[in-house]
Amino acid sequence: MMLFGVFMSYKAWGLYTNCESPLVVVLSESMEPAFARGDILFLSNPKKPIEIGEICVFKIPGRDIPIVHRVIDRHDSSSTGSQLLLTKGDNNNVDDRGLYQELHSNRGKMWIEPKDIVGRVQGFLPYLGMFTIFMTDYPMLKYALLGAVGVIVFLYE
C-alpha cells in the first residue's frame, strides 16, 4: 500500500508540474560545475517559450536515457510559432549537433524542438541520486537490497 501511495504521489506531482518525469538523476559530468553526477533535478514544463540559458532535459528518439544540457541558441519562426533549440553541456567543448545527427533518422537534423523537451530544471538536490547510480552500476547491490527488504517484510509481518 505504501508503494502505491508513493507511485500515485509521483504521478500527481507529474500532473502538477506538467512533466512526465518530474525527477531525474544526472548521470554524467557534462553539466559540471552547474550539476554534478548524482544530483537529483526537479523538473517542470511551463507553457512559456524556452529561453537561451535555460537548462533542459530532453530525449532523442532511439535513446532511452534523457540528456541534461543548457540551451545555447534558439530560432523562432514567427509564421508557425515554432522553436528550434541548440543545446550544449557546460563541461563539453562542442554543441550537441553531432548528437542530434547521430541519433535521429534524419541525418541532417541540427536542432531539437520543444516536443523533445522532457522538462526544465527548477531545482536540485546535490548527490542524492548516487544511490540510483550505484544500483545501476552494481546490479548485485540492487538484488541484495531487494532480498534484504523481502527478508525484513517476511520476518516482521
Automatic annotation (TrEMBL):
Catalytic reactions of this protein: Cleavage of hydrophobic, N-terminal signal or leader sequences from secreted and periplasmic proteins
UniProt keywords (A-Z) are: Endoplasmic reticulum, Hydrolase, Membrane, Protease, Signal-anchor, Transmembrane, Transmembrane helix
Q: Which domain of life is it from?
A: Eukaryota
Domain Peptidase S24/S26A/S26B/S26C intervals: 22-74
According to its UniProt record, what is one Pfam family this protein matches? Peptidase_S24
Where, by residue number, does the polypeptide cross the bilayer?
Answer: 140-156
An MF annotation (GO) of this entry: serine-type endopeptidase activity
GO biological process per UniProt: protein targeting to ER; signal peptide processing
* Subcellular locations according to the entry: Endoplasmic reticulum membrane
CDD domains in the record: S26_SPase_I
GO cellular component terms attached to this protein's record = signal peptidase complex
Q: Which InterPro entries match?
A: LexA/Signal_pep-like_sf, Pept_S26A_signal_pept_1_Ser-AS, Peptidase_S24_S26A/B/C, Peptidase_S26, Peptidase_S26B
Q: What Enzyme Commission number(s) does the record list for this chain? A: 3.4.21.89
Give start-end of the signal peptide. Answer: none
Q: How does it sit in the membrane?
A: Single-pass type II membrane protein
Recorded hits in NCBIfam families, A to Z, give: sigpep_I_arch (TIGR02228)
Q: Which family does it belong to?
A: Belongs to the peptidase S26B family.
**Described purpose of this protein according to its UniProt entry:** Catalytic component of the signal peptidase complex (SPC) which catalyzes the cleavage of N-terminal signal sequences from nascent proteins as they are translocated into the lumen of the endoplasmic reticulum. Specifically cleaves N-terminal signal peptides that contain a hydrophobic alpha-helix (h-region) shorter than 18-20 amino acids.
Q: How does it assemble?
A: Component of the signal peptidase complex (SPC) composed of a catalytic subunit SEC11 and three accessory subunits SPC1, SPC2 and SPC3. The complex induces a local thinning of the ER membrane which is used to measure the length of the signal peptide (SP) h-region of protein substrates. This ensures the selectivity of the complex towards h-regions shorter than 18-20 amino acids. SPC associates with the translocon complex.
What protein name is recorded for this chain? Answer: Signal peptidase complex catalytic subunit SEC11
Instruction: Tell me which species this is from.
Output: Lobosporangium transversale
